[in-house]
Structure to design on (249 residues):
């Protein structure tokens, strides 16, 4: 039995020599598998019981059919050659002529890995596109908010310029406000994403390991959005004519 089964049934104690009941069948435990952890798909590789094929066919399935066979290739052995040899053997065992197609399928983990890689790239491209659109929409929103802020504070800006404030100081003030606004939005988004990721991984029973590098990049991007989309409103505020600004109602 696997380590997870042992923990659930015997609290991690040595199970060898003990009996367990599977349905109506009493079985003796003759060994404990080495801990493997989770697979790449999130499956617990330790939550299993291994039995002789003949015993399973006789006591549980009631027939001699085998739905799948898993093979492990030793290091240095060509998987392509093993796959071809296996195909020849299965065709011979199934009495298939040269003109008949295979009535079985052989899957190499390399093919599965390539398929998963392709799917991952597609999802990454899709999510990147969604993120780019979200950044654009968020940036436009920040720019509109800052333009409204400049309009509402025109008189305040005029007073600052009239008493000696430099244009670059006004520019820096509004640019800082835009960056702070976008950074708070980025922090809120990061917290929301971490919460959603934790919830999904908890439901799927896979470990949640946040990537600090990605989090840092996300925060930098959110701040950069504030700089890019906040520059025009800040420049507009810095270039206001003090006299016209003081007349603004």
């Amino acid at each position: 039995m696997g380590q997870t089964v042992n923990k659930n049934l015997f609290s991690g104690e040595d199970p060898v020599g003990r009996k367990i009941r599977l349905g109506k069948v009493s079985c003796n435990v003759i060994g404990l598998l080495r801990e493997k952890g989770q697979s790449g798909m999130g499956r617990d590789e330790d939550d299993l019981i291994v039995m002789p094929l003949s015993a399973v066919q006789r006591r549980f399935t009631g027939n001699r059919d085998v739905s799948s066979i898993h093979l492990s290739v030793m290091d240095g052995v060509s998987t392509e050659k093993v796959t071809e040899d296996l195909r020849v053997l299965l065709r011979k065992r199934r009495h298939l002529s040269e003109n008949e197609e295979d009535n079985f399928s052989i899957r190499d983990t390399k093919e599965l890995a390539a398929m998963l890689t392709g799917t991952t790239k597609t999802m990454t491209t899709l999510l990147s596109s969604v993120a780019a659109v979200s950044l654009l929409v968020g940036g436009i929103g920040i720019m509109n908010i800052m333009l409204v802020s400049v309009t509402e504070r025109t008189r305040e800006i005029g007073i600052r310029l009239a008493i000696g404030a430099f244009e670059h100081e006004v520019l820096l003030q509004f640019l800082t406000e835009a960056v702070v606004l976008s950074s708070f939005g980025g922090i809120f988004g990061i917290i929301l994403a971490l919460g959603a990721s934790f919830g999904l991984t908890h439901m799927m029973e896979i470990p949640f390991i946040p990537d600090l590098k990605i989090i840092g990049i996300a925060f930098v991007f959110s701040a950069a959005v504030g700089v890019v989309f906040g520059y025009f409103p800040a420049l507009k505020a810095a270039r206001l004519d003090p006299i016209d600004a003081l007349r603004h109602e």
